[in-house]
Specification:
The protein has 731 residues and is an alpha+beta fold. Helix content is 25%, strand content 23%. InterPro entries: Kinase-like_dom_sf (IPR011009), PASTA_dom (IPR005543), Prot_kinase_dom (IPR000719), Ser/Thr_kinase_AS (IPR008271).
Length: 731
């Protein structure tokens, strides 16, 4: 699996990386590492000739010596350079630097400062269909351009979709066409050197079943990415890559609406069409998929919660004969066989470790040994036996079988003649002259017998008599095995210990020669002792960056799986919170370890509590672990007592532990009505207005025109809100 051309602009390079600071081909100055993959690493670099920032993908040390890898790297440059599309990462140059005494094969590409679609999924998913399709559309457009150029990406996944930051336009670009090949009749197989190309979570079923890919494999992967954008989860998961691949073959991608019920039926249908297990039911290439995507976007713009006609048109068709198509969303098994052993061979995984192959053999033979040549592929031969010298009892010692073609020595046919086809007639004896016996005859015969006996005796000694049989000592401890071998007159030597899943530590796994094998009398037998099951502890990676954590896993026999985003109040964004499984867990070699990365502090959106109950606001905010304070309590003629007059901040985003401040209403201010009885109307009005009241006058029933106050409403001594109207009664 290749790294993307750029993962994050701010990712730090690994400390002590020998490439940092080097200038490749006296032009590209390496500044920092920004991504690392199984075959290559990607660096931020400066093109000193053109004075611009570029991304340089460098093959890992040692791989440049492998002609197959180097040729594949060059093919990547040529294939990607053929694509000129605004949503494809551009390839500028390819080179091979030998200044440090080793081949450093590299590609120079467009530098995209920003983040990947994986980062967006961590932060935003599950997301609305409109947002998901807006992110996927440029990806499908780029794939369509590649398919029209005769290229297949073969590794479509969120990590290979780069999104520039806002300062650089926010453009979406598809990266890493490193696994793409020109489509032809003889270059469609996905296995190169025994390694299955593509990331297992996005592999189309046909890649697992028969190892062949076309543009529809990219369509399938794009459909899986769409499912992940809509739901925040991958459609198929398992404990091992083999199990995930098995589910891609035998199980349909579920409808996204099963996890997110608000998703319209036609969006479900688009996912089902793109991820159909029957590739004939998928869009023929990404250009056709883009057309369907535009139809769905139009329905979303129209605000349709459901469109049965569009959904029916997009759903995969049923197979002829009325039977459900294998691609329909059920758990029916597809017709193609799933060869877990063959997949394990491609992915360099012991098939018995996959949990999918019933193999009862007690030994630890390799996958290649368990996939012998089919008898139909072997040449037809006929055994020809040769006999070794007899032993003391006169019986043949061995029967060595050699293989020779059946027709290697054809019988010579009889020569045709007049008598052909008739029984042969008797031939008259020819008279002979008696010959005198010679003494040389018997002597030669005796010498021949003696020579033959000597040769037979020598052969017996050198080929048999001086050898003994190796005793069986498997599963014995070293002391018991040594005693048994020495008792048989053999010397014992300790070989290199080896791991074993079946034999306890300290016991014998194997011997050389093996049990029952021939060994010279007094010869040496090598013991191989078991180290027990091979296991490794998950290292403590908390607090490290994603790049540093991947380096630490690469230094062990454990495999990096994926990164999962989680909010954290204590761990800075981008650093490892923990691992899955947790640090210290003991795992088999090759086991997958996922990284839980911090997304930073969880943002808390606050609402405006103005005019609402302060007690309710305090309870709600403290429940979200925010600090609540009262700046002041003020009189208010409009806000009831105990409600919020104002808050700071009024709206926006806070984080756990932040403080929000309130001004709380005491209600309207109350003022006591003073005594104004017997006062002149002018003096009474001045007094009341000075206290903030509004004054009105009215003639009393005994009005005489004197201009004095006989009483008021409200009466003196009452507490009324400031600004209230006081009526004066005049006499």
């Amino acid at each position: 699996m290749e790294p993307p051309e750029h993962a994050r602009a701010t990712a730090p390079g690994a400390a002590g990386d020998p490439l940092i600071g080097r200038v490749l081909e006296r032009r590209y100055e390496i500044r920092a590492r920004i991504a690392r993959g199984g075959m290559a690493s990607v660096y931020e670099a400066t093109d000193t000739r053109l004075d611009r920032t570029v991304a340089v993908k460098v093959m890992h040390p040692g791989l440049g010596d492998d002609q197959e890898f180097a040729a594949r790297f060059v093919r990547e440059a040529r294939a990607a350079a053929r694509l000129n599309h605004p949503h494809v990462v551009g390839v500028y140059d390819q080179g091979d630097d030998t200044s440090e005494g080793q081949d450093t094969v590299f590609l120079v590409m467009e530098y995209v400062p920003g983040h990947t679609l994986r980062d967006v999924i961590r932060k935003e998913s599950p997301m609305s269909p409109t947002r998901a399709l807006a992110l996927l559309e440029p990806v499908v457009s780029a794939l369509g351009a590649a398919h029209r150029a005769g290229l297949i990406h073969r590794d479509v996944k969120p990590e290979n979709v780069l999104i520039a930051d806002e300062a650089h336009g926010g453009r979406v670009k598809v990266a890493d066409f490193g696994l793409a090949k020109a489509v032809s009749a003889d270059t469609q197989h996905t296995a190169t050197g025994g390694v299955l190309i593509g990331t297992v979570s996005y592999l189309a079923p046909e890649l697992v079943v028969d190892g062949r890919a076309d543009a529809r494999a990219d369509v399938y992967a794009a459909g899986v990415v769409l499912y992940e954008l809509l739901t925040g989860r991958k459609p198929h998961e398992g404990e091992s890559p083999i199990q995930v691949a098995y589910r891609h073959v035998h199980h349909d991608v579920p409808m996204p609406s099963l996890l997110q019920p608000g998703i319209p039926d036609y969006v479900d249908a688009l996912v089902a069409r793109a991820t159909s297990r029957d590739r004939d039911q998928r869009p023929a290439d990404a250009t056709v998929l883009l057309h369907h995507l535009h139809r769905v976007e139009q329905a979303l713009r129209e605000g349709l919660d459901s469109d049965p006609e569009l959904a029916a048109d997009l759903l995969p068709r049923r197979a002829p004969g009325g039977e459900p198509d294998p691609t329909e969303h059920s758990n029916d098994t597809v017709r193609e066989p799933f060869d877990a052993s063959a997949l394990a061979l491609l992915t360099e995984v012991d098939p018995r470790d996959s949990g999918l192959v019933a193999d009862g053999s007690p030994d630890r033979t390799t996958a290649l040994e368990r996939h012998a040549v089919h008898p139909a592929d072997a040449p037809v031969t006929e055994p020809m036996r040769t006999m070794a010298p007899p032993d003391a009892g006169g019986a043949p010692l061995t029967s060595a079988v050699t293989s020779a073609p059946a027709a290697a020595v054809p019988a010579r046919p009889p020569a045709p003649g007049p008598g052909a086809g008739r029984a042969p007639s008797k031939v008259a004896p020819v008279p002979t002259t008696p010959r005198r016996r010679s003494r040389k005859g018997p002597i030669s015969f005796v010498l021949a017998i003696l020579l033959l006996a000597g040769v037979a005796g020598g052969a017996y000694w050198f080929g048999w008599a001086r050898y003994t049989t190796t005793p069986g000592v498997l599963t014995l401890d070293e002391a018991a095995a040594t005693a048994k071998l020495e008792a048989a007159g053999l010397d014992v030597e300790a070989g290199e210990p080896a791991y074993s899943e079946n034999v306890e530590q300290g016991l014998v796994i194997s011997t050389d020669p093996g049990p029952g094998g021939r060994v010279l009398a007094g010869g040496t037998v090598t013991l191989v002792l078991s180290l027990g099951p091979e296991r490794y502890d998950v290292p403590e990676l908390a607090g490290q960056t994603e790049d540093q954590a991947q380096d630490a896993l690469a230094a062990t026999n454990l495999v990096f799986g994926e990164s999962l985003g989680r909010w954290s109040e204590t761990v800075p964004e981008g650093q490892v919170v923990r691992t899955k499984p947790r640090a210290g867990t003991t795992l088999k070699p090759g086991a997958t370890v996922d990284l839980v990365l911090s997304r930073g502090r969880k943002p808390l959106t606050i609402r405006d509590w103005t005019g609402r109950s302060f007690d309710s606001a305090k309870s709600a905010l403290e429940g979200r672990e925010l600090q609540v304070t009262v700046a002041s309590e003020e009189f208010s003629d409009t806000v009831p007592e105990g409600n919020v007059i104002s808050q700071d901040p009024a709206t926006g985003t806070l984080y756990r532990g932040d403080t929000i401040t309130f001004v709380v209403s005491r209600g309207p201010e109350l003022v006591e009505v003073p005594r104004v009885r017997a006062m002149g109307v002018a003096a009474a009005t001045e007094l009341l207005e000075g206290l903030g009241f509004t004054v009105e006058t009215e003639q009393s029933d005994t009005y005489l025109g004197l201009g004095f106050v006989s009483g008021s409403d409200p009466e003196q001594g009452e507490d009324v809100p400031k600004g209230s109207t006081i009526t004066l009664f005049l006499v």
